[in-house]
Structures are given as structure tokens and as C-alpha cells.
Amino acid sequence: MVSSASVPPALTRKWKSHDPGHQRTSSPSPPQAAKPNAACDSCGTARIKCKDRLTCERCQKLRVPCRYSLPRRRGRKKRPQNVSKYPQPRQRSALSSLSATETENSRNPREADSPVEIE
Question: 53 lies in which domain range?
Fold first, then answer.
């Protein structure tokens, strides 16, 4: 067994969570409120930060209403529950039946389709 004196402190682990006398010192973090947008809608479109919360300087100069919309959801959109995960097999379409007819004709050429000699 390796003594703790020969192992650098950075490589040693302390398993305090398994120690029955150990109590958690950090309290759980308080729930955070929704982060407001950094810019109003007008400044956000122009990719400029706002300096004021109620009406920013840019909106005052342009004389447009300074609005803050709700942030858009990120990530995948939820799939409607009535849509099946596996699509139903399609019925044979007119194009697929036409291609089947052409395949049969290429296997059994008609006399009219045979090469004609030109004199």
C-alpha cells in the first residue's frame, strides 16, 4: 500500500460524503428568476445592448416603443402526441405502378419496339 506522504496532495481524494460525521456545509442555491433580455426588441434586432430598463436611449431617439418580449424557448419542439412514431406504409402510387409496367415491357419487348432496318 502507498503511504499518503508519497502521493502528491493534488492526486489524493477525500471522500467526505461517505463519512458519517461529515455534514454538508454548502446550502442549496436559491431558485433563480428568469433572466431578462439584455436588450429590448428594437435593440435586440440591431444587436445592441440597452442601457436603461424602462425606455432605452435608442428607442427614445428613434421614437419607437421600447418593448421587452418573452425569450424564445430553445431546444427541440415537442412532437404532437397524436402523431405516430412510425409512419404508416404508403399505398402504391400511380408512378410506382407505371414504373412496374415499364419494367415488364423492358423484359418482354413488343414487336413494335424492336429495331427497324432502314434501307
Answer: 35-65
Residue in the structure block whose three cell numbers are 423484359: 107
Residue 56 lies inside a defined structural domain of this protein: yes
- d(Cα 35, Cα 33) in Å, to the nearest integer? 6
Does residue 47 form part of some domain? yes
Question: How many C-alpha atoms does 61 have within 13 Å on its Cβ side?
Answer: 6
Q: Please answer whether residues 41 and 68 qualify as being in contact, where contact means their C-beta atoms are separated by less than 8 angstroms.
A: yes
* pTM higher than the cut 0.70: no
DSSP states of 79-108 as a string? PPTTS-SSPPPPPPPHHHHHHHHHHHHHHS
- Mean pLDDT, 10 residues at a time, the chain of 119 residues: 57 54 56 63 88 82 88 76 68 55 55 62
